[in-house]
Amino acid sequence: MSARPTFSPVPHYPDDCNALRSKNQDEWIPILSCAASFPLDLFVVAAEQMVQHPEYNSTLILRSETLSETSTDSGDLLGNLPCIEGMLPMKNIHRKLLPRRPCRDAPIEQHCTFYCNSTKPSKFTEESDIPSPSCLILSPIIQPGETMPYYHPTVAHLAVRYLRSLEEPGVHESSADLAKCSIGIEVIPLAGTPDPTEPNSRVYRTCLALLDTIHRYGWGALTNYKKRVVHDSLVTRETYQDLYLILRERHKYLVNQWKESTDPLKHVFEDIGIATFLMLLWKETYGPENGQTSVIDDSGHDGDTAPWRTWPRPPGGFIDLGCGNGLLTHILTSEGYSGTGIDVRARISWAHYPEASQANLKVVAFDPMSFPSDKDNELFLPGAFIIANHADELTPWTPVLATLSSASGYLSIPCCAWSFESKFERSQSTSSGSNVFHVSFKDTPQEFIDELRLGGDGSNKSSYSMYRIWLAYLSADCGWEIECETLRIPSTRNWAIVGTTFIAIRRRRNRDIQKSRECAVSILRKVRERGLFKPRKPEGKAGHK
């Protein structure tokens, strides 16, 4: 399939027969138009996608929530909505736009009404008689005394229309016909709004963004576009975003108190996002209904009535491998979760966290070759949840350790590709360290790969894709039922593999439990025998103790 046609917006000058007219004489001002690259019957597909995802047009919008949806069969749709000459309302979506910064911007409700070009009564006798919608009008609902939020253009109505010069409205456009079709945007501005046809005005810029979006979505519908990245597989978008906003307000002060030389905006908000995901994942995973008993530690948090204080959590707490600046451990500790973060050296930030967080950050050069030692048993409590966020050479060890320590689950966000003994190399016929754990990529079932949600172009031939497939096979062989998620964090390495169910335990098959443990033990034994794994040494004062 060829690439999307170039988006080339021009000033919109509809001819007299295509002019938009309201029966109450409100004047519509044409703003922009562009050539349509898709037929009329796909306009509603593109327009509905735009209605469902306003956040793609503005970084100031978090999402929309549909309050109600009314069709032509539900009675009079007009009410206070525009009455357009030569058009009939087909469907209305009443939605609420939620701001990304609720402490700064207010939400606003909006009517999204679809119209068709018809003078027939709104009751159609046959489904085949129903014309395709050719117009979407967005109408903000402003109560007396309220002001328009900054993220919303100062208009009473904004119309997105599919325009064509075909004589028969029911036929499908050919390539030649599409050359005569266009998409146009018109508005009815509020009093006092600067000239909306001025390219530097906010209304104009909003219309330009919406026109580009509908042009892109229409082409995507025509070519059966499939998103490369799928979010919110394990935790719903709404619950994640709502909790993230709360945690961001609670911890955003850390940006101004950042002690490291790294970018505070990236690290603070990335770890807030990971903490949000974990808290919601644990809430859904643990608890009596799932056969788990959570230990809740509220020491040092008197007076905090946050609802997650009583949410289910890993019965053995968490252990953050290679915790680095310790921020994720600090956030989880601050929110009442028990656990430990370990790294080969202390960071500057550690000494500036509260005492409760400092107590949970430890300098440890973890060596899988000595597992399980007495010190390891103090760290890897039964039922602990292992976190491996960009854990480098400890990444492949995560599912192995989870099996050997009877962990309750793990989250691995791989970055640098490591096998058990060296860098992972895709050029080898198998994997790096092939005598330790071998995967035949040529024979990998496509169904297994599809479930990993790797994103990209779907070829899965990149080194990073092959590494993730290798990690997934490794996790399965160690007995874990895995699920994958693309996290909503500001990082290019945001793909995560989650093990929350030990398959053999769920199936109550002791033989499978033993087989999974034997696999993990075998990997550990082979790496020991080869003697190629080199653990890091503790740095700083801890290294001399």
TrEMBL record:
InterPro entries (UniProt xref): SAM-dependent_MTases_sf, tRNA_uracil_MeTrfase
Top-level enzyme category: transferase
Reaction catalyzed: uridine(44) in tRNA(Ser) + S-adenosyl-L-methionine = 2'-O-methyluridine(44) in tRNA(Ser) + S-adenosyl-L-homocysteine + H(+)
Keywords, in A-Z order: Cytoplasm, Methyltransferase, S-adenosyl-L-methionine, Transferase, tRNA processing
GO cellular component: cytoplasm
GO biological process: tRNA methylation
Protein name as catalogued: tRNA (uracil-O(2)-)-methyltransferase
Organism lineage string: Eukaryota, Fungi, Dikarya, Basidiomycota, Agaricomycotina
